[in-house]
Write a structure and sequence with these properties.
homoheptamer, about 80 residues, mainly beta, 5-stranded antiparallel β-sheet, 1 helix, about 10% helix, about 50% strand
């Protein structure tokens, strides 16, 4: 899984088209399919679902997320929760 | 829906003239028609309605929103709430 | 009202000389006549009135506001409250 | 009072040598004579008096204030409080 | 252990491929194998485990962490806890 | 006292070698002799004494203070408290 | 002790190889031997010990600290506590 990761953004590049868990500040999370990102770590998720304090809150579909509210992005963690 | 999204800002470009849900920091949300945005994610909404803790609070009409208070912008999520 | 808005700052340019509602962080608001703004969204209001938790607090007259405390600026919302 | 204000910093330039009210984050205020400012909105007040939660706390005399803690600067508001 | 550390990032370079403890703001911690970092201190951990208030919460596997939420990164501290 | 202050940093330059009161965010203060400063308002105090909620807490001697935690620096205020 | 300090970073340069007290935001402190620093005030401590609310919490050994969480760094204060 680790092969080919030279720089942090390689992980996001490898995760395009896959489900990711995005941990936001203030106990918000989103899960969805990573479609795009930029160097500010602004990202786009498709079929995004917002989770607050471990509860499903709402489906927000296609969503643009600003990078500065993101703590971490984890492509592999969906299956492990 | 996903076609043609190479960079995060493509989602905002595709959403011009459509209703979007904007999640702000501190549990504020706005819904309105996206008229314009820039690279700082400053945006303009028309017919904007402010929602705090899931309650409608007030209509603020045409509104300029500073990018640094925005968590996410979701063009598709109006119908799904 | 929407005509001619290509970039977010066009809204502020159109609002010069008119009353605006300015929502600040921490539940502060100001209403006043927009006299000037810059790219940092620093603005000047004349006849500014400060409102905290929906109560009028004080008239502060001519006022310089730093952009980084601003959430939104709404030129049309005075009449709608 | 409004004449000659093209840019936000014009208000500060006009206020040099006059008393201003400076609203800081966290409910702190200062009043004093504006001596100098720069583009970061760092300012210098002379005969500055610190006010916390509307109470006079202390005279701090000549004071350098960092711009990023400032919400607004109001040259006209001293007389109106 | 100290040999060869001229600049702060040398510590992270030496820690590649090793377990690190990452202290995040808001009492979150992560432990995992450091795979990559950049000058913004964005990092990638493999086999990352999230710890909140000293309790194991979840395995998040391969994870991208944004630099601005990081307080410290400690390569040597795993064994010492 | 006001003579010769054209720019905000002139106040700090004039205060070198003198006692200053430094107000930090979160109700911390320091008093000490100003030895050096830079454009980020990073400063060095000698014989620094930390004060929290108006109580002396500890002598920290020679101290480097990062600019972004500073609210104000007041060279004249020691005698007035 | 004051000799040779022209700029704030001179204090950190003089403190290399010596014990320093690092005050972080949110009532965290660290003590340790300063090995390296950069212009962002990212630092490396060896034999670092974390202290929260004046209590020893844990030894974290060699540690990279991000500059933006640092309030002050005090080379002389270890002996004085």
């Amino acid at each position: 899984m680790v092969n080919g990761i030279e720089r942090p953004l390689d992980v996001l590049n490898n995760a395009k088209g896959k489900e990711v868990l995005v941990q936001l500040k203030n106990n918000r999370q989103m899960v969805g399919t990573l479609l795009a990102f930029d160097i500010h770590i602004n990202i786009v998720l498709d079929n995004a679902k917002e989770i607050i304090d471990s509860e499903d809150r709402r489906n927000v579909g296609l969503t643009f997320l600003r990078g500065d509210t993101i703590i971490f992005i984890s492509p592999a963690s969906i299956a492990k929760e």
